[in-house]
Design goal:
Length: 269
């Protein structure tokens, strides 16, 4: 059972961050979904849909003859998502928990992005998501293999800050390396045809990759200090060092690796 709240909190700034994050990464997940064959007339479930950023694209992909359903545990995020699809008859947002209680079924594709890295019982949740699939349906999880994140030239405190976030996820039962565990979990849940597609992005200051990582660190740094995962003095040195690096047009930031892991329900039922 997952009684712990969403580690990053639900409030308007986080919802805006989720929306902008989707704009940066949507090309990767849409390509993965198309290669799984998601298209017109199909039924797709977005498990842990947040404010519905990806769900909006899923609704377009399946069209009015299909159905796009989101499940979200947070009541307010779910109602923000529900409001944006009020006019779309083929989109539904359900308040629900991926770890317990009923989930809808019979989907051609179930997708879950940046949710499993927060959850302690990954196998239990994948088992439940596999249960939402129609025979022959596909599960696509996009989540972290957190190595690879780096900034050049080096910024004071950067690696301590990254390690603090990894530890905060770990201590709340999550795992920023969850993607690499999934093929074994998929096999245990009856999913075959497993495929992995790694994605990463990089940019100079002001570009998408830099802005995404720097904004996440700035908006959530106080939380890892408050939880005791980062020394306040390190945080105080890090913020001006990051700002100074942003004045260098030749600096480069590489994102952590995000891996899409797909599998298909090979047995019937
Ligand atoms: C980082 S956000 C990602 C949102 C969305 N998948 C996206 O890519 O924009 C993680 C979301 O998962 C939701 N979540 C976390 N645990 C959940 C659970 N057990 N059941 C349903 N939703 C959950 C959180 O409330 C949050 O909205």
């Amino acid at each position: 059972m997952s009684t712990s709240p969403y580690l990053l909190g639900h409030h308007e700034a986080e919802w805006r961050r989720l929306e902008d994050q989707h704009a940066l990464w949507r090309d990767t997940i849409l390509a993965d979904l198309r290669s799984l064959g998601l298209g017109e007339g199909m039924r797709v479930l977005d498990a842990g849909c947040g404010v519905g950023s990806l769900l909006a694209d899923l609704a377009v992909l399946v069209g009015p003859t299909g159905e796009a359903v989101g499940v979200e545990r947070d009541v307010e995020a779910a109602s923000v998502a529900r409001a944006r699809f009020a006019e779309a008859g083929h989109v539904r947002v359900i308040g629900g928990d991926l770890t317990e209680g009923p989930l809808p079924g019979g989907f051609d594709v179930v997708v879950s992005r940046w949710v499993l890295s927060f959850l302690p019982d990954v196998e239990g949740v994948v088992h439940r998501l596999a249960g939402c699939l129609a025979p022959g349906g596909a599960l696509l999880v996009q989540d972290y293999d957190h190595d690879g994140v780096n900034v050049f030239p080096a910024v004071e405190g950067f690696s301590e800050v990254i390690e603090a976030f990894r530890a905060a996820y770990r201590d709340s039962g999550g795992d920023l390396y969850v993607a690499t565990r999934l093929p074994r979990v998929y096999a245990a849940c009856g999913l075959g045809d497993v495929a992995l597609q790694p994605h990463a992005k990089a940019s100079t200051p002001g570009g998408g990759a830099w802005t995404w990582v720097a904004r996440f660190l700035r908006e959530h740094l106080h939380e890892v200090v408050a939880s005791g995962h980062l020394d306040e003095a390190v945080a105080e040195r890090f913020l001006p060092a990051l700002a100074a690096a942003e004045a260098d047009p030749g600096a480069v930031l590489v994102t952590p690796m995000v891996v899409s892991v797909s599998g298909r329900l090979t047995r019937s039922g």
